[in-house]
Design brief:
With about 300 residues, this protein is an alpha/beta fold. It has two domains: about 5-215, Rossmann fold (3-Layer(aba) Sandwich); about 225-280. It has helices spanning about 45-50, 75, 95-105, 110-120, 135-145, 165-180, 190-200, 215-220, 260-270, 285-295; strands spanning about 5-15, 20-30, 35, 60-65, 65-70, 80-85, 150-155, 185-190, 200-205, 210-215, 225-230, 245-250, 250-255, 275-280. It has a six-stranded mixed sheet, sandwiched between helices. The radius of gyration is 22 Å and the shape is elongated. The relative contact order is 0.14.
């Protein structure tokens, strides 16, 4: 499987004076699982709503499976599954009624797949939607998104509001199984551990822009935390190129560098006023926090 499943080209979207998405570009290869990571209000949901054709961008293009979403939305919606952040199904219906209703409006509905997922998710078809827990409601939306065997699956904060035990069961028993298939998956989250467990690629967005997008493993491999001991607390050399965040506590100077360059670290070790340099790996959570802190630090 080769080529791109999703291309977002220079997307912009404003809400009055709020710049929700600013010149956002993202390319997602077919068959990959990408976790879109950002704090609340970073622009994740707005981006996904534009991706699904539910909200028009003020500038930019949305290309899904080689087609413009806004020119071919009817065709693409039959090929794309979507789980919104908030429930949208009729709460007065039973699960069985929801499935029957959706099967009539989805041209590629696959009943055997729907029944298989009904059992896998342990959904009671006689229950009304309003009586389902948050976790079961999310599973119902996921079933509806998967029952037509989509080529692309879009998940907007699928684990938001679930308690820790339900979230872990959901990740291990449901999403991990789906993300391992050929379907291209894009999901948004502000929980770093979910992204690290599920995604082979990660995009970190902040204030409506992509700060970094890469394979998760290579991103962590190419980022290092440097702990520098200074001879004098008030004096240190210029930080290495690629420093995304730094902080100092007396003679201890800590830097997060992406991408990490061994030659730069060696030069730092030899710089005047430096007595020691220690290098260590970073977790995705540390990288995420430092990248956001670096953006918000005074310039």
């Amino acid at each position: 499987m080769s080529g791109s499943a999703i291309e977002l080209r220079s997307l912009c979207r404003d809400f009055g004076k709020l710049h929700a998405v600013r010149n956002l570009s993202l390319t997602i290869p077919k068959g990959s699982t990408l976790g879109m990571l950002g704090v609340n209000g970073a622009g994740k949901s707005t981006t996904l709503r534009m991706l699904m054709g539910l909200l028009r961008p003020h500038a930019g293009e949305v290309i899904v499976l080689g087609q413009d979403m806004f020119r071919h939305r009817a065709d693409l919606c039959a090929r794309v599954g979507y789980v919104p952040e908030h429930a949208t199904v009729y709460r007065w219906m039973t699960v069985k009624q929801v499935l029957r209703f959706c099967s009539r409006i989805q041209p590629k509905w696959d009943e055997p797949t729907a029944q298989k997922l009904l059992g896998l998710f342990r959904l009671d078809s006689s229950q009304r939607v309003r009586s389902l827990s948050k976790g079961m409601t999310t599973k119902l939306h996921l079933l509806l998104a998967l029952a037509h065997r989509p080529e692309v699956l879009i998940l907007d904060e699928p684990l938001s509001g679930l308690d820790p035990i339900v979230r872990e069961d959901f990740v291990d028993g449901v999403l991990a199984n789906i993300c391992g298939h050929e379907c291209t998956v894009l999901f948004s989250s502000h929980h770093v551990d979910d992204v690290q467990r599920l995604a082979d690629r990660v995009a970190i967005i902040h204030e409506g822009s992509v700060l970094v997008e890469a394979e998760t493993e290579s991103l962590l491999r190419d980022t290092r935390r440097l702990k520098v001991t200074l001879a004098e607390a008030h004096c240190h050399p210029a930080p290495p190129i690629g420093t995304i965040y730094q902080r100092q506590n007396r003679r201890l100077w800590e830097l997060t560098v992406m991408p990490f360059n061994k030659e730069a670290a060696t030069a730092l070790q030899a710089a005047d006023g430096v007595t020691d340099v220690q290098s260590s790996a970073v977790s995705l959570e540390d990288l995420f926090k430092d990248l956001i802190r670096g953006q918000e630090a005074p310039q």
